[in-house]
Amino acid sequence: MCALSSTSSPASELSLMYASLEDVAQDLDTVIQSRSSQGEWTWEAADEQEQEGWTDFVHDPSSKATIFGLTGKVQVMHGVYLSFSLRSGSHAHETGKCHGAVVNVSAPTLAPNQVSKLKKALIDRSREWEQEGIETLFLFDLLTTAQEFTADLADSGQLTDASQEPELPSSETNSVSQIELYRALFWSHHLKAPSKLKDFNNWCPELGIWGIVRVGYPGYLLFEGESSAVEEMVRRVKGLQWHALQLRVETKWVLQKQKEVEQRSLLKHALLSCPLAKDHPNNVVVGDGKVRTGCHVIESLGELVKRMRECGLDEEEIEGALGIRMSSASAR
């Protein structure tokens, strides 16, 4: 029997150990079947062929399907997800070998303290498995726990309205005086595949962050927003396991609440204050007053440099991201 391990910090990932790949496939199949009617399970595959291989593995774990990098996520409720990643060492179909996986929480629609409580609830539940003799269906059990947790939040009136953009509940805005923001700049050897752009077009609005992507050779990824949301994006980008990818520049800062934002969400104010929000195509005035984040795709390197300068990024940060020495003529 494989031992189960979990992290002690509610802010950390949860590690699982399965006795066999058959147990992994059974757990995933149970979760997928339980959410299939709502379409709330999605593979985070690089292309359709990889997704088909992972699906074949779930249906028949004895098949020769390649499962290296297997990653997917299940929606607990609007804006709340559990992501599942099979560790890289689990790609071999070997007997008598434990297979590790990692579960993470992404919940941009919940307040930070609620996210911490949800993660703690999942870790506490995982520590009960050995006592209760639970040796499989770990992800399904965590999904059930997460559903119960969010249902309790809804019953107690603590849950953010699912129709709203990610923001702190109004009951907490007066007690929150600051918010941490984070900007991450990636370099990639190349970025051309439409499937990769589709991921970013979906993830940016889901997580409530601003994205700017330069396609071509090389490719560049710029993400900015609330710190935990950008950290989740960084985790997902790294999870794509591209062969040539570097997180070149990271910038974090704290925005203090000002008196003039008493009547509006602090997170909304913070998102609108982000440098990458300036002239972003998704940053438009809408009738419902919501902040609409998204991904802006750029093809020209010169246009990217110009865009970064217009956003107010300093030359040192731009040079660090691009990996080249800039001059005043570089923007042309």
UniProtKB/TrEMBL annotation:
CDD domains: RWDD2_C. It comes from the Eukaryota. InterPro entries: Phi-like, RWDD2A-B_C. This is Uncharacterized protein.
